[in-house]
Every structure is written in C-alpha cells, then in structure tokens.
Amino acid sequence: MKIENFDYIFGENSTGETEVERARTSTNLYVRSQDHLAFWSPKSTGRILTAFQALEAFGVETLEEVLEHGSAIIACATDQPAATLCSQREALGISIADLAKRTGLSQADIQACEDQTKRSPIRSIERVASSLGLDERLVSFYPGAGGDGALAVRLKSLGSQSLNSNAVLALSEAAWVIRTQSRIERNLGNDKAIDARFRPSDMYGDASYPAWRHGYYLAKKTREILNLTDEEPINSLRDVCESLGIPLLHTELPRAHAGATVASDGARGIVVNTTGFNQNVWVQRATIAHELGHLLWDPDEKLQKVRVDTYAELEDLGTDRTPQDFVEARANAFAIAFLAPLTPVKIEYSKHSDSRSGMRAVMEKFGISYTAAKYQIWNAFDRCIDFEGLCVDDVEPTVDWNGREAFTDDYFPIRSTTTIRRGRFAGLVVKSESQGLISEDTACTYLQTDLDSYRRARSNIASLYLIN
Amino acid sequence: MKTERKRLSHTNLSGGGKAHCGGELWFRDDHSIWLTGGSSRYAPRTQEELDLIVNSFVDSGYSVCSCGWDEEMAGPARFFRGSEKWLTNHEN
Question: Which chain A residues are within 8 Å of B70, Cβ to Cβ?
Fold first, then answer.
C-alpha cells in the first residue's frame, strides 16, 4: 500500500511505520454491515469498529478499497453469511427455536440471517455467530467464519448423549469466549503459552502403578512448577488459571454436570457449572482442579475438543474405585492432591484432639469439601482409620473462601452481563477498549450492555480485574 | 488518460471540482445497466439521491437495476443481494 494512503485510512494523527502501528494509534472509526465496510458516519447504525479491528479482521487491501470506492465489499459470496450460520447450527444439532431462545432473537430473525436473499442487521448476525461459537468478526468475509468443525461434531455428539440444546449452546458460546479472550490477550501483548514443563502424559496406570498414584505425582509436579510448597493452600484457583493463561468461565449447565474443558481456535479453557454441587465453592474448587488436571496433563486425544465431566465422575477422590475410566481417576487424584497434599493434611488433622475439629480444620485450611477432606484424611492415614467415623458438623465454606473464588459470580457491575462473560474476559474487554483497540460499541456488545451502562461500569470493572 | 494511480477515479473526471453524484455502472447489454453509488468522493448521501440517479438513467432509456442502499452503513450498497428488480421507462 502507498504510504500516503495511511493518512486517510488511519488518520493523520496516527503514528508508526507499519500499518499495524498506525492502526493501533488511530482514532479513525469504521462501520460494518452484513455486506460492506465503510468509514463511520453519524448516520450509520452498523457495527462500529476501530481502525485496528477493521485492519485485523479484513486486512489492509479492504481498507484501501474503502478509500478508493467509498466502501468495501466484505461479503465473499452471495450465500454468505447465510450458509455458514445455517450449516454451523445444523452441525451442532440445534433447532431454530432453540437458537432463538438462546439469543433472544425471534425465529423469523434467525431465518432471515440464514436467508441469502436478505440483508440482516449485523448485530443479529453477530449474536447468532457468537452463540454458535463462530468468529463474529469474520461472518460474511470468510466461508465458515473461523468455525471449528471438529468442535461442532463433538458438541453434537454430546447433545445426542447427555447435554440438552441449551447446554450445547452454552459450550459453543464458551468456545467463542475462549477464542475471543485469547485474541484480546494477544493484542494486549499478554499471550502466554502454557509452561513447557506441563508436558502431557499418557500414563494412566497399570496393575502395579494405579492411575491415581500418577495423578498424585502430577499434582506434586504442578505445585513444583508453580513454586508452591506442599503446605501452602491454593488460595485462588482463578489466579492459578490466569497465571497459566487458561480462560476460566462460569455458566449454567445441566445439574448433573460439573465442568468441562473446551478447545477453540488453538486455545483451551475451563468451563464450570454454576448450578448443582458447585454452588458450594469448595466443590467448585475441586471441579476446577479436576479440569486443570485434564487440561495440563492429558494428551489431546484424551481431551478431545470438549470434555464434559459429571459430578458423579468427580466423586471418586483419589481411589481406584472406578478403574474403567483411568483418565477420570487420574484427574480426580490430581485435583485432591493438588489442593490438599497428603502430608500437610495429616499434620493439620492431627493437631486436633477430636476428629470433627480436625476434619473442619483440613477443610478450612485447604479449601476443600467435606467429601474431599474425608477421603484425603483417610488416604493420609493409609486408610487405617475409621472412614465412616470421619464426620463434621458444618460443611459450608467460610466467607473468605467464598470471596476468593466466587466474587465475580456474586457481584458484577453490569447486571445484564451473563456469567460466562464475567471474570477476566470482562477485564480484558475494558482494557482493550480503553487502549482504543476495540470500539465502545464492540465492548458493549461483548458485555451485553448499552453504552451508558458500560461507561458507568468501565472503571469499576477495570479495578476488579487488574490486567497488566 | 494516464494517472499516477494507474486507474481512473471520479476526481480525475471532475478535475476535483463539484459533481452531483458518482457511482459505478456495469453494462448487461447496450440498454441495461446495474448501478451502484460507490464513489470515494461523490457517493450519494441519501437513498433519495441514489434514486434520483437511478431514475435519470431510466428516463434516458436504460433498464436499471440498482444495488440499493445499505442502511447500516448509511451509504450506497455495492454488493447486490436479493432478487434483481429492473426499472424501465416504457415510454422510451
């Protein structure tokens, strides 16, 4: 591109040698519709994009086309985005009625988005796309819009086995949040690969070395990599996930399901069910630790694109009671040993003269549930104490533990933002918008709110999530 | 005409001066054209302005299919979507 065109495309006040540098410092705004990209004007009602967003999504040739012709055609073919939206919905096994319910659009709106003769509002198209796990920026521009076919197949398969349509859509939206969060991290210069020392292990035990024992070993190794001593409680699994660059999302799944790992666009994140036993933050910690065990140590073929775990699968804590599923047994053992290593558990329990006080002390020190503490104390004493006699009077987590792990579920400055988009994702959106990388319009849509509410909440969100 | 940009723009035609409207034409045959208001400098500012241009070509004897107006962009569409609607002045 000719250098003089930079002044028009990115504005005279933008600085830098490359188009990316100019875009990052640009205050020019663009607007996109289903079919076109143009310079923003006060009369336009489509999606407002920063110059950086426009460059990132469509490339410099498209911006040059805007300059030359007043607008650029971004629809790559007449059948786009209708064909992509329809085929992705069908690949997930979702009906138009279910998608309408999830997105809050009417069935007629969804049908219009899937009709190649119609020009639909870009906000409707984007809402459908993100619900289906697509890259909403790329609808129209690329056939498939960055969708992950293998993920869709896996979700459809889960949908036919154990998940309802809403859960399938919750997980596909989780895929969208994970891919978007990873992209924003990259653009802010925060992207980090998982430490190479977390090399996936295909050891799931044998007759002389049970899977749970290897889970214990991996938990110990994880603590070493994270510079945590055995005695140290893990105060916030959210912080652990964030330090490892792993998106941690909360959403509503069917009550029987505890959590899942979801891979999208090269990134993998953890999804935790907000209903069922996870409402107890100590159970939730076990769920997150279990999924962390999968994510850090299972090879890809074991993880697949989506791995969903039920509460029942998480109940076997460090024993070899369900040898049929060594992958789950190892992740369970990892979870409990990561949260509460055996020796410190034994020491803490032994400090107390009565069993009930000892149990409660272990729960409070390590932030683990009654069931987890019961198994881990039993294991710590080589199963030579009375298992059934291990009881406690109070199974509820302390206020401190609730605050450390669950604060974004309980409190978020914008009420309309759904749980799955709270947490670090929200902090990254605000940071990205404040640096001019994404528009206020995009930030509002990402956080499912209006401009006034966003502006009121912006500094509050920024202070909740301190992003470097 | 030779230009520095190696392509002809509306500004080359107008000499940078005032013009009512600019856009793009594709000829289906000698008597029928597809029309858009795509222009970096002289694009129609409203749907009404675009319609005036369409009507003037119709009045001059062409069958015209307009790409129409993109409300969200607040500008003339350049990508055709939907079924083609040809306007003809039958008095010609």
Answer: 33, 35-36, 71, 119
Which residues of chain A neighbour B79 with C-beta distances below 8 Å? 35-36, 73, 75
A207: number of Cβ within 10 Å? 5
A115 contacts A82 by C-beta, under 8 angstroms: yes
Exposed, middle or buried: residue A3 (CB in 10 Å: 0-12, 13-18, 19+)?
exposed
Cβ distance B66 to B13 under 8 Å? no
Q: Tell me which chain B residues have a C-beta less than 8 angstroms from the C-beta of A71.
A: 38, 43, 70, 73, 75-76, 78
> Cβ distance B55 to B85 under 8 Å?
no
Please return the burial class of A425, using the count of CB atoms within 10 Å of its CB with bins 0-12, 13-18 and 19+. buried
Inform me whether the C-beta atom of residue A468 falls under 8 Å from chain B C-beta atoms. Answer: no
Name the residue of chain B whose CA is nearest to A49's CA.
B73
> Chunked in runs of 10, what are the mean pLDDT values of chain A (468 residues)?
80 93 96 97 97 97 93 96 96 95 97 96 97 95 86 76 87 94 93 82 86 94 96 93 91 88 86 89 93 90 76 60 71 95 96 94 95 92 90 91 71 91 94 97 98 96 81
Question: Do the Cβ atoms of A44 and B73 come within 8 Å?
Answer: yes
Q: Chain A, 84-123: which have a CB under 8 Å from a chain B CB?
A: 116-119, 121-122
Instruction: Compute the Cα dihedral for A344, A347, A353, A355 and give only its sign.
Output: positive
Strand order in the sheet with A72-73: A47-50, A29-32, A36-39, A72-73
Cβ neighbours of A63 in B, within 8 Å: none
Residue with tokens 């990134």, as numbered in its chain: A267
Q: What is the pLDDT of residue A209?
A: 87
How many angstroms from the chain centroid is the CA of residue B11?
15
- The angle subtended at Cα B51 by Cα B48 and Cα B57, nearest 5°, is 150
Give the nearest partner residue to A33 out of B9, B72, B82, using CB atoms: B72
What the block records as the tokens of A98 is: 């279910």
Residue whose C-alpha is closest to residue A175's, from A185, A163, A164, A167: A167
Chain B nearest-CA distance from A122, in A, is 8
Per residue in A97-145, pLDDT (tens digit) is 999 999 999 999 999 999 999 999 999 999 999 999 999 999 999 998 8
Q: What is the pLDDT of residues B11-54, one digit of tens each?
A: 666 677 777 788 999 899 999 999 999 988 889 999 999 999 99
Burial of A289 (C-beta count, 10 Å sphere; 0-12/13-18/19+)? buried
Q: Are A338 and A234 in contact (CB under 8 A)?
A: yes
Structure tokens at A210: 């049970």
Contacts of A63 (CB under 8 A, 6+ apart): A9, A30, A37, A51, A54, A55, A72
Cα–Cα nearest to A279, from A255, A296, A301: A255
Cβ atoms within 10 Å, residue A435: 13
First CA to last CA distance, chain B = 34
> Distance between the two ends of chain A, CA-based, in angstroms?
34
